[in-house]
Amino acid sequence: MANITNNTIFDDVFRTMLEKMPELAVPLINEIFGTSYPEDIEIIQRRNEHQTKQGEIITDSQLLIAEKIYHLECQSTQDSEMVVRMIEYDFSIGLETMEKEEGKYRMYLPHSSILYLRGNKKTEKLTIEVVAPEGETWEYKVPAVYVGHYTKEEILEKRLFFLLPFYIMRYEKADLETGNQELNKMLEEYREIEERLEKEFLEIGKEKEYRDLIELIIRIADYILRKRKKARKGFGDVMGGKVLELESDRLIKQGLKQGIQQGVQQGVQQGMQQGRAEVIQIIKLLRQGMTIGETARKLQLPEEEVQQIWKETEGFVK
């Protein structure tokens, strides 16, 4: 998975999904543009750099599906100039894909949309009126999609799993520390989300896809809940437990393999259960903000051992 920083966490998670899990974007594209592509349709990723009028270099995200280019961007806050940037990107894309047909150049603009991570406005399309020198006008329109418009039930029913990492943002201003009602509601929603993802991915052998998506969900949640320890711990217990178990299984299997190679088989079965518990404890304590030294002292383990497990589980522990 990509190395994600807090400064650009929303955009980085968005682009990581488009790059690493583009199949998750297919139901979202169907929802926005009224298409009916199957989720296993061939997707060709097109990534190009464009220079804006301010001299800024932008790497946009494009997906080629059934000979059509889809250009998706996300926006975490309201920005009245977003539509201006979109038309700038789209004309750059159109110029790159322009073709000469029957002696005339024809420019095809991509199918574009903006995904708003915050807000719940009723705006369905953002527009710019383009006026030609002769006075003819043409409206450039971009669909605006708000994550906040979709309930958990709608996301799961329509398989809009692409939206799940950003679902936590609706709890950004909720009282999750002193009021148990909101916290319990949030945790119950995520229990249902985890169960559904387990069924959709884990139970059919898509462990990597499951772990990657859960990891991105946790990354955004850790950022949104960073100052709310009670909510963050509850969220980690609900969403992080299965990933920790999967990772500990991998480490245990790796340790067993090394042990067998060294001819050390006695006591392996007893060590498996103990090793699983230790790995999960170490990861949980590190995720809660403890240092490697504090974790080692609490569990009475060598710091080198805790450090090694941290390295092995990098990407799951902050």
Concise synopsis of the structure shown:
This protein is an alpha/beta fold and about 325 residues long. The chain is built from 10 helices and 8 strands.
What does this structure look like?
- The chain has 318 residues and is of the alpha/beta class.
- The protein folds into two domains: 6-149, no CATH class; 153-241.
- Helix content is 48%, strand content 17%.
- It contains ten helices and eight strands.
- The protein has helices at residues 9-20, 25-33, 82-96, 152-157, 180-200, 207-224, 229-261, 268-287, 292-299, 303-312; strands at residues 44-51, 57-65, 68-75, 99-101, 104-106, 111-116, 125-131, 137-146.
- The strands form two sheets. It has a six-stranded mixed sheet with strand order 1-2-3-6-8-7, sandwiched between helices. A two-stranded antiparallel ribbon has the order 4-5.
- Strand 1 and strand 2 (57-65) form a beta hairpin.
- Helix 1 packs antiparallel against helix 6 (207-224) and helix 9 (292-299) packs across helix 10 (303-312).
- The longest helix has 33 residues, at 229-261.
- Residues 2-6 and 263-272 have low confidence and may be disordered.
